[in-house]
Protein backbone atom coordinates (compact mmCIF):
# COMPACT_ATOMS: atom_id res chain seq x y z
CA UNK A 1 0.00 0.00 0.00
CA UNK A 2 1.44 3.34 -0.94
CA UNK A 3 1.88 6.16 1.56
CA UNK A 4 -0.77 8.43 0.04
CA UNK A 5 -3.45 5.74 0.13
CA UNK A 6 -2.57 4.87 3.74
CA UNK A 7 -2.77 8.56 4.73
CA UNK A 8 -6.22 8.86 3.09
CA UNK A 9 -7.48 5.75 4.86
CA UNK A 10 -6.25 7.03 8.22
CA UNK A 11 -8.07 10.32 7.60
CA UNK A 12 -11.29 8.43 6.83
CA UNK A 13 -10.96 6.47 10.07
CA UNK A 14 -10.28 9.70 12.00
CA UNK A 15 -13.42 11.29 10.55
CA UNK A 16 -15.58 8.26 11.33
CA UNK A 17 -14.34 8.08 14.92
CA UNK A 18 -14.95 11.82 15.29
CA UNK A 19 -18.52 11.52 14.09
CA UNK A 20 -19.17 8.64 16.51
CA UNK A 21 -17.63 10.56 19.42
CA UNK A 22 -19.75 13.71 18.91
CA UNK A 23 -23.10 12.21 17.95
CA UNK A 24 -24.83 12.97 21.27
CA UNK A 25 -23.20 16.38 21.84
CA UNK A 26 -24.58 19.82 21.10
CA UNK A 27 -22.49 22.00 18.77
CA UNK A 28 -20.42 23.57 21.58
CA UNK A 29 -19.73 20.13 22.99
CA UNK A 30 -18.72 18.88 19.56
CA UNK A 31 -16.32 21.78 19.04
CA UNK A 32 -14.81 21.35 22.50
CA UNK A 33 -14.32 17.60 22.12
CA UNK A 34 -12.85 17.80 18.63
CA UNK A 35 -10.59 20.73 19.57
CA UNK A 36 -9.27 18.81 22.54
CA UNK A 37 -8.61 15.89 20.18
CA UNK A 38 -6.34 18.19 18.17
CA UNK A 39 -8.49 18.83 15.11
CA UNK A 40 -8.22 22.17 13.34
CA UNK A 41 -11.22 24.49 12.94
CA UNK A 42 -11.37 23.55 9.25
CA UNK A 43 -11.47 19.84 10.10
CA UNK A 44 -14.13 20.44 12.76
CA UNK A 45 -16.21 22.46 10.30
CA UNK A 46 -15.96 19.69 7.74
CA UNK A 47 -17.07 17.04 10.25
CA UNK A 48 -19.92 19.08 11.78
CA UNK A 49 -21.17 20.58 8.54
CA UNK A 50 -20.71 24.14 9.82
CA UNK A 51 -18.32 26.79 8.53
CA UNK A 52 -14.89 27.32 10.06
CA UNK A 53 -15.74 30.89 11.13
CA UNK A 54 -18.57 29.58 13.34
CA UNK A 55 -16.19 26.96 14.75
CA UNK A 56 -13.63 29.66 15.59
CA UNK A 57 -16.29 31.86 17.24
CA UNK A 58 -17.53 28.88 19.25
CA UNK A 59 -13.98 27.98 20.33
CA UNK A 60 -13.45 31.56 21.47
CA UNK A 61 -16.74 31.50 23.39
CA UNK A 62 -15.75 28.27 25.13
CA UNK A 63 -12.31 29.61 25.98
CA UNK A 64 -13.74 32.91 27.29
CA UNK A 65 -16.34 31.08 29.38
CA UNK A 66 -13.77 28.74 30.94
CA UNK A 67 -11.43 31.63 31.63
Describe the protein's topology.
Elements: H1 3-22, H2 27-36, H3 41-48, H4 52-66
Helix pairs in contact: 2-4, 3-4
Description:
This protein is mainly α. The chain has four helices and no strands. The mean pLDDT is 93.
Task: Tag the structure with descriptive keywords.
single chain; 67 residues; mainly alpha; 4 helices; 79% helix; 0% strand; elongated
Question: In summary, what is this structure?
Answer:
With 67 residues, the protein is mainly α. The protein contains 4 helices and no strands.
Major sheet attributes: none
Mean pLDDT reading: 93
User: Count of helical segments?
Assistant: 4
Q: Termini separation (Å)?
A: 46 Å
Q: Note the overall shape.
A: elongated
Name the beta content range: under 5%
CA-based gyration radius: 13 Å
Task: Note the run of SSEs as H and E.
Answer: HHHH
Q: Which residues sit in consecutive blocks of at least 5 with pLDDT less than 50?
A: none
SSE class: mainly alpha
Approximate helicity band: over 70%
Number of strands: 0
Amino acid sequence: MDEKKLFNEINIIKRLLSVIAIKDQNFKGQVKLLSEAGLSPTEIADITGKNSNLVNVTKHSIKKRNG
